[in-house]
């Protein structure tokens, strides 16, 4: 292992946007921590793909909705790498139901993974980032944080909390030279979207009504993440960048 390589942790990186972000950062020379909650085989496939790029990668299982698991995750990162330079807080989940049908367990599950995880991951990440003079934290959000989406109550509210937390973390971590931002995407055709009862409607809307003339692709989100973990974004702090081809500008 090269001690000189910077290290990036991408939560929920066994598939979708997280996987693509992990591969992009590996291409940039980062050693990668692939975090997953369930599919070890998928995570190991990502590790294998990354190692072919000539950098180190490890897969670490952790449900980031549980603070004790977050501590274990970061303890392993410290043990194996001794540093962390980038955290992409990407893992997400949620119960797709109308507000009047939600139960407490639905609320807690979604808020824990989508919002609470960023707070406690950031706390642990900051401890490692300080050792090397700072770092970058980027979280992934969605348009449901600022507008109504059918069956999206728990996720939308959790993402709104995530974006607010991004602002607070950006201010409080700036003295440590840790830069915190978020990327919010329009409808992206990933595995996560398969859980939406109205998936087909969302995709059709994105295809027909996005001013840019096409729907958002995974790579569009990764481009924004890559920008936010670069020095080019050093004076952008606490912001949520909407990557939706202009869809949110229309009714």
CATH architecture: 3-Layer(aba) Sandwich
CATH homologous group name: NAD(P)-binding Rossmann-like Domain
Annotated CATH topology: Rossmann fold
- Going by helix content, strand content and strand pairing, the class is alpha/beta
**Secondary-structure element pattern, one letter each:** EHEHEHEHEHEHHE
Percentage of helical residues?
40-55%
Molecular shape? globular
Give the number of helices.
Answer: 7
> Approximately what portion of the residues adopt beta-strand conformation?
15-25%
Q: Which CATH C-level class is it?
A: Alpha Beta
**What Rg is obtained from the alpha carbons, in whole angstroms?**
17 Å
What would you note in describing this structure?
The chain has seven helices and seven strands. It has a single domain (about 5-245), classed as NAD(P)-binding Rossmann-like Domain (Rossmann fold, 3-Layer(aba) Sandwich), CATH 3.40.50.720. The chain has helices at about 15-25, 40-50, 65-80, 105-130, 155-175, 200-210, 220-230; strands at about 5-10, 30-35, 55-60, 85-90, 135-140, 180-185, 240-245. With about 250 residues, it is an alpha/beta fold.
Please specify the SSE layout and strand pairing.
Layout: E1 7-10, H1 16-27, E2 31-36, H2 40-51, E3 57-61, H3 67-80, E4 86-89, H4 104-129, E5 135-142, H5 153-173, E6 178-185, H6 199-209, H7 218-228, E7 240-243
Parallel strand pairs: 1-2, 1-4, 2-3, 4-5, 5-6, 6-7
Helix pairs in contact: 1-2, 1-7, 3-4, 4-5
């Amino acid at each position: 292992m090269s001690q000189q390589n910077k290290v990036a942790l991408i939560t929920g990186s066994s598939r979708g946007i997280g996987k693509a972000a992990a591969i992009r950062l590996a291409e940039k020379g980062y050693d990668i921590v692939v975090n997953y909650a369930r599919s070890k085989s998928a995570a190991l496939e990502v590790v294998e793909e990354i190692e072919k790029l000539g950098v180190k990668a490890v897969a670490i299982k952790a449900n980031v909705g549980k603070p004790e698991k977050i501590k274990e995750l970061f303890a392993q990162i410290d043990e194996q790498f001794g540093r962390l330079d980038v955290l992409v807080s990407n893992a997400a989940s949620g119960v797709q139901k109308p507000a009047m049908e939600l139960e407490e367990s639905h609320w807690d599950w979604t808020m824990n993974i989508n919002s609470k995880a960023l707070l406690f991951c950031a706390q642990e990440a900051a401890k490692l980032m300080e050792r090397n003079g700072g770092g970058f934290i980027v979280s992934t959000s969605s348009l449901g944080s600022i507008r109504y989406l059918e069956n999206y109550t728990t996720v939308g509210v959790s993402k709104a909390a995530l974006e607010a937390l991004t602002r607070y973390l950006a201010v409080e971590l700036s003295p440590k030279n840790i830069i915190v931002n978020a990327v919010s995407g329009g409808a992206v055709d990933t595995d996560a979207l398969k859980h939406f009862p109205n998936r087909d409607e969302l995709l059709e809307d994105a295809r027909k009504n996005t001013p840019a003339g096409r729907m958002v692709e995974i790579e569009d989100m990764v481009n924004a993440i890559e920008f936010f973990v670069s020095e080019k974004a050093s004076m952008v702090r606490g912001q949520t960048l909407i990557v939706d081809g202009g869809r949110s500008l229309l009714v």
